[in-house]
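ASSEMBLY PREDICTION REQUEST
Request ID: AP-0331
Submitted by: J.K., bench scientist
Number of chains: two
Total residues: 766
Priority: normal
Notes: Please return the full assembly, not individual chains.
Input sequences:
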Amino acid sequence: MSPGGWGGRQLPSTDVTYLDHAATTPMRPEAVEAFTAALADAGNASSLHAGGRRARRTVEEARESLAEVLGARPSDVIFTGGGTESDNLAVKGLYWSRRAADPRRRRLLVSAVEHPAVLDTASWLARHQGAVLELLPVDGTGLVAPEVLRAAVGDDPSSVAMISVMWANSEVGTIQPVAELARVAHGCGIPFHTDAVQAFGQVETSFAASGADALTISAHKIGGPVGVGALLVRRGLELEPIAHGGGQERDIRSGTLNTPGVAAFAAAARAARAELPAEQARLAALRDDLVRRVLTEVPGATLNGAPSGPGRLPGNAHLTFPGCEGDSLLMLLDAHGVECSTGSACSAGIARPSHVLLAMGADEAHARGSLRFSLGHGSAARDVDALVAVIGPVVERAARAGELAGLSSRG
Amino acid sequence: MGRMKVLAAMSGGVDSAVAAARAVDAGHDVTGVHLALARTPASDRVGSRGCCTLEDARDARRAADVLGIPFYVWDLADRFESEVIDQFVADYSAGRTPNPCVSCNERIKFAAVLDRALALGFDAVVTGHHARLDPDGTLRRSVDLAKDQSYVLGTLRPEQLAAARFPLGDSTKEQVRAEAARRGLGVADKPDSHDICFVASGDTGAWLRERLGPRPGPIVDAGTGETLGEHDGAYAFTVGQRRGLRLGRPAPDGRPRYVLELSPVTSTVTVGPAEALDMRSLVAERIVWPHEGSVSCTAQVRAHGGVVPAMVTARGDELDARLAEPVRGTAAGQAVVFYDGDRVLGGGRIRSLAG
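STATUS: Completed
Returned structure:
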């Protein structure tokens, strides 16, 4: 990793091996520049004076820029406070507006491997708002097959409020056949939302080509600042707001526009887009190297999700180490300066068996013994070297602790 | 002692935070771990109960930040449930009075956590218990007798104590709090936790009733055998209890009556006069007693109680203790710990008592 490439969010020290880009990735220099430039300029984009107009111009340029990167119209872009807000807005907003138009539309079809921002939102609607949540099953690689979606819709499409399937899985990196799924949805007259937080910046994500009606993105996953996101909403799609106020964003989202944040978001998006084809190939090669060498060091380990190729995010390596607990592995790697993730942790910081792996058919022990290594801009061969140098002894040690916990060493 | 890799168990309270701080000062490589013991932790502490809430986890994390040590949360909820909570319920159901803090030390902190720590390459586990541990493995009372916790550690086996470190034993609680404030630890003023951490309401009887359901039975006079009243479940009573018996009429002699015995099989609660609570001998099981012959020492039968002179003799995997003065209101299931002055000699779980 080149120290100059880290921009604003600095890593704690240069001897840290950061393999958790899917959690957050350092800000790109272009984003830091746009951010600080906008911070220095006061002005509410809703104000009518010169300062307001300057801020508004910055916001609209960012909107156009993001729209261009995403193959969308500028008016499709609704800026939000991040991916979670965008997902909430899409799921709740669509459910409420669709149900208001026809009270029979109560069903929510949501993939079983969604991020909690979608999954918990949908289950909240089921608990409190009369929705009927149906989880779309996935195959062993985490994929929702279009025929599974078709079967789930069944012969009563008019009872479905909305469908949500993420573009790429945040844990195992499996890329969904979004365009096909959207076609199935549209064939049934049902709006389709996709959470593209992990996909955006790693693979080509065109809103128009995807056919999705709503699409979630987040700035800090692509080298922009935290606390900024967007929901792309197809023109004409009605969406009930989740928070009320000034109606700044198409009357769908209220709140003073985060001018520095959206400017930095757009700058990061442009930078990510510019390097995308080359970076995609580079990260995939680096990831393949990581997987191959870790499997050499730890022959019992297995790669979860789709095989390397177009069906998998280039920066994602998700591995299970049988007989080990993920949080033991994480702690031991952390002590060696290697930072990665167990996938999901609750609010208390406890590693939980991943709902994604369980939905893919893994048993609980398998799910507990998993780690996600995710690469991003700045990742280099030396990061893989650092991991490979310690993974063998770390797994050996974690397996000893795993024996005490009653984890067998079967796969 | 040279530089060690130590795991500091951090409850989120002031004691464990200062214990971890002292381990850092001693030059050790310290990692903080908060033990998540509740399946679904409440977000905030209520009163004095705790060490299981998200707020406690947050407090522990903040203390680790201040100390500049790595910090993790270990999920031991399943182990805690099967080894401590289920046992607690089973004990009450069998008419015993368990001490869950003793079980937690024996089976969680100095078993599951210690074993895992050693397997992961740590040399020792540091806790904020108020007790002293000599280099030769002798456990002794804290200098702060009011806060001494050697009783809840007294049934640990030598191999469990061998990898334990208690940095607070030479300090009073007041000194620990002052030190926490000096170090900028936000938990300096946090109230002490007592009560049973997993009984959120503090009402153990109601908590048990929820799990065990009503098991009605008679309240019987020990002297006359006469039935004096009814109850919903013997588990809601403890030996020595006087209040809440709700007996319709006073005893013939006008003196207060106490719970003497709980018989879960017949669901009978036996009551009688105070002196019938006096116990002069006991048999303990699950003992830690590395001594030969009869040993003259003192015995402690509850967490915050005094000691009485005792003569202890091991018989196989049990031991007999004759007490020079009677103890009152002690029940089977509680721990007994024997001392020579401030030195812990060993202990066990009380199986039976006699007057």
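REVIEWER COMMENTS: Chain B has three domains: 5-189, 214-272, 277-354.
SIGN-OFF: pending second reviewer
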